[in-house]
Amino acid sequence: MYIVRGRCWARLMLTGTLTLFCLDLSEGTKLLEFMPAVAHRAIAACNELARELADANGGEIHSELGLESSMLIAFPLASACVETASAIHRHVISNKGIPTNNVIRSAILTGEISGDESDDEVLRSLRSLTDLARPGQILVGESTHAIVRYGLSEGHGFLNLGLHHLDDGGRGQSLFQLLHPELPSDFQLLPSLLSAASNLPRGRTPFVGRSREI
Q: Which spans in 73-206 are helix H?
């Protein structure tokens, strides 16, 4: 097992350039405490549809959604991965047995998996991206967006959320929100945007005693 921030994932066994989809419960602990029936229905609905869509689109499930685990699916085709994320979110929204749109959140990232320790970097980036997502939101990394921006089914689009720094220690990257008429679209700004005003290093010395220049 591969554990990141308390969430358990099976270690990836595939190699090559893959698109990874992570789906997580939003505020999972609170959801279990105050609405346990809703939490269990949401988990069952997500896992059932994920198995169906993964089988149909060549995806491989490495971890199913649970109260202590995130869903993790690897797809050879980026477009199939994004369409799967959209379908799962829209299914939860339309499920009358789940009375809230915001029980799940997702992130999608395309990266090269080599089967060795470099997998950890891809997973850390995906985990960081998932942690940034607001409840009900689907975040897409710039690597995936570059591949699928013109190849999705009708109704899908992207909102450019600007340049962000993830907690994986890598460079800043542009993040995108997946759009669809059946998906929620209004979310608070991501906190990582505040530290991404530019890609220039911070100045090493302050302006002291130079009020006129400042």
A: 78-94, 119-132, 142-148
Identity (one letter) of the amino acid at 120?
D
Which pLDDT tens digit goes with each residue over 47-87? Answer: 999 999 999 999 999 899 988 889 999 999 999 999 999 99
Residues 80, 88 contacting (CB under 8 angstroms)? no
pTM, to two decimals: 0.80
Q: Which token pair is 43?
A: 């988990």
Domain assignments of the chain as residue spans, ordered by start: 2-195
pLDDT tens readout for residues 31-51: 667 778 888 888 999 999 999
Q: Which fold has domain 2-195?
A: Alpha-Beta Plaits (3.30.70)
Interaxial angle between packed helices 78-94 and 36-57, expressed in degrees from 0 to 180 and rounded to the nearest 10: 150
